[in-house]
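idk why but the lab printer keeps eating my pages so im just putting this in chat instead. protein + zinc ion:
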Amino acid sequence: MATYRDLLAQTKDEISEVDAAQAGALAGAVWVDVRELDEWQEGHLPGAVHVPRGFLESRIEQVAPDRSQEIVVYCAGGNRSAFAAKTLQELGYEHAHSLVGGFTDWKRNGLEVVVPRTLSPERRTRYSRHLLIPEIGEAGQLKLLDSKILLIGAGGLGSPASLYLAAAGIGTLGIVDADIVDETNLQRQIAHSLDTLGAPKVDSAKRAINALNPDVNVVTYRERLTSENIDRILDDGWDLIVDGADNFPTRYLVNDASVWHDIPVVHGSIYRFEGQVTVFKPKEGPCYRCLFPEPPPPELAPSCAEGGVLGVLPGIVGTLQTNEAIKLVAGIGESLVGRLLLLDALAIDFSEVRIERNPDCPVCGDHPTITSYIDYVEFCAR
Ligand SMILES: [Zn+2]
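predcted complex ->
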């Protein structure tokens, strides 16, 4: 009966072994790391793909469908990869090579290695239901953790958005709101509670987010958004704005600033039983002013949100906005750019209207006529 040493020697006789220089000269070679996950995570060769030895037979075809292509397999020292090369031969791969000395020699010789970013065990557990979705996975979760989203308003729309974005592991959440929590808010603004009555909404929301997920860095702006402060706030660097504003002056301010700062806006608005959601992405679709170039005159303005709204409606609209935000950050799915989603909660009817960039838009059009911020006077037809 052959010992391990005999078997290894025999295997090495039957396969091709290459050193780093020879391997580097192989044109178009696929580099396969057959070590275990913990070894891979401590560093690997640039451009290599990870297929642990135990999964080699079942996964190699996905990595290298062409059996005539050059394949370089490596492990820590060159023994496991010798057996792996033998297996590849048996699977019909004509040019499988084992890297002599493996990762250890490669690193010792000062050649380039890559240390992959990975999630800690705690984060693997917290985000396990995201990791199980191929469209998100570890790479997508890292994108969420790296992202910075600015919420305009911590009220009806901002409450569900802030909680679900926090739960999803958005790395940095900015919140702009000047208001204080009062009892009339609690019918719908679920980030707040009896415990935070009288507190600034940004502090109340921050408390709720911190209690939910310590991964999230919350940046609060306890101020009303104006032409004076909007550039300063946006210059803090945001990937995306979730607009939960309940008034026209803020909505126009956010729109104009987002075009000039080139930041996509996930827009949501609510009125009694009706909601609207869309994404305004500069250069790729319309902006808010493409649809409504100017605010309505005060006598035609609809009531402010305080005029009445079904409590769950901002929950529905705010979570639809959150869905768009997560998709945009993760780079998956089809966004609502160029599509205005209309919902009627009373009939439970969803419909969609196509919206296009207006070349005559005063802000994002071909010949803009508005080039500086306008502070509209707030009005509410109560
Ligand atoms: Zn526009």
